[in-house]
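Chapter summary example: a protein plus adenosine-5'-triphosphate.
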Amino acid sequence: MHLAHLRLRDFRNYARLNADFAPGFHLLLGDNAQGKTNILEAIYLMATLRSFRGVGSAQMIRHGQKGYFVGGKVVGQGEREIKMFWSARERNLTLDGRAVKKLGDFLGTLRTVVFCTEDLQLVKGTGRTRRRFLDLLLTQTQPGYLPLLQRYMQAVRSRNALLKQFAPDPRLLESFSEQLVKLGNELIRHRRELIPKLSPLARLAYRRISNDAEELRINYEPSVKTDFSVELAQVRDRERRFRATLIGPHRDDLQLSFNDKSAAQFGSEGQKRTLAIALKMAQAEYLTGIHGSAPVLLIDDVMGELDAKRRAGLLPLLERARETSGQVFMTCTEENWPRELGRELQRWEVKAGALHGAKS
Ligand SMILES: Nc1ncnc2c1ncn2[C@@H]1O[C@H](COP(=O)(O)OP(=O)(O)OP(=O)(O)O)[C@@H](O)[C@H]1O
Ligand SMILES: [Mg+2]
């Protein structure tokens, strides 16, 4: 799969951009604050309808303008055309010229994996970051997962609203609880099945990047230990006091450890950074295995942070993307781009919201 064309209007610091991209390796070179990351953000947006910077759409509109347009042509098994327009008053998403009604039909048109400095939050941050990682991967691989997740989150919200009332109707609470347990158990099943497949890929990636002897472990840490309805009944009094749904997949986490010691608490900075990259590599490998083609890799500022040895560990992944006619976009400044990547790459110069093809 590759992105063959990207078109931007009033997106971040791009007034307009039209660029054609071949499969293979694209190096986006430029000084700071020129618009390198903005390009990756636009590509990721077409894949997930979110910014990987965790900001809302309003922030992505070019200053002083009313709305942005991001569009692209994706070549995979066929050719698909994505167009999205966003303004405070109007939102429009089309695939091959037709309005997208169900997100499930759209997501998966373009698959990406992003590597960025914020990935460190996968190790250092709260459970929410790790749940999002799992949810994105399951959305990218299981067609029914997103609607299921949305229905579950809606059930949590309705139940919480009821629990906030002075005297919640017990019959209504009972029916919300039933819904919660039914949908929640499905989510738990998906997550439980994913971890044993993801874990070996992450361990292998970790070992490739670092020569550390530590044994990386990834365990699913579900909020529900055995029986959701029984455990929900056990926390009833506490739920009354806290007026919120206290257990369920919305409280799940992933436990990351080295030699059975928490990576967040005991790992070194380098180990944490390597672990975050290993998780992303595992995501990419898993997607490749499931779909038979590599996702588009978006690598932002990551190489510059790694020492030569760790960079060398990342290279096989990039090589593979090239061999399987996948596509990689990597941002760098002139000083820190890894020259060992070789000559088979397309260089682009990014300057003040414009992109110029450069000779490699
Ligand atoms: N909504 C917006 N409208 C106009 N310009 C914006 C908007 N949001 C960000 N910018 C501008 O985009 C530029 C930053 O772009 P980007 O983050 O892509 O830089 P970069 O090339 O990745 O830099 P670095 O090497 O520092 O990471 C800044 O000049 C910033 O002012
Ligand atoms: Mg940047």
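Key point: Residues 170-209 form the longest helix (40 residues).
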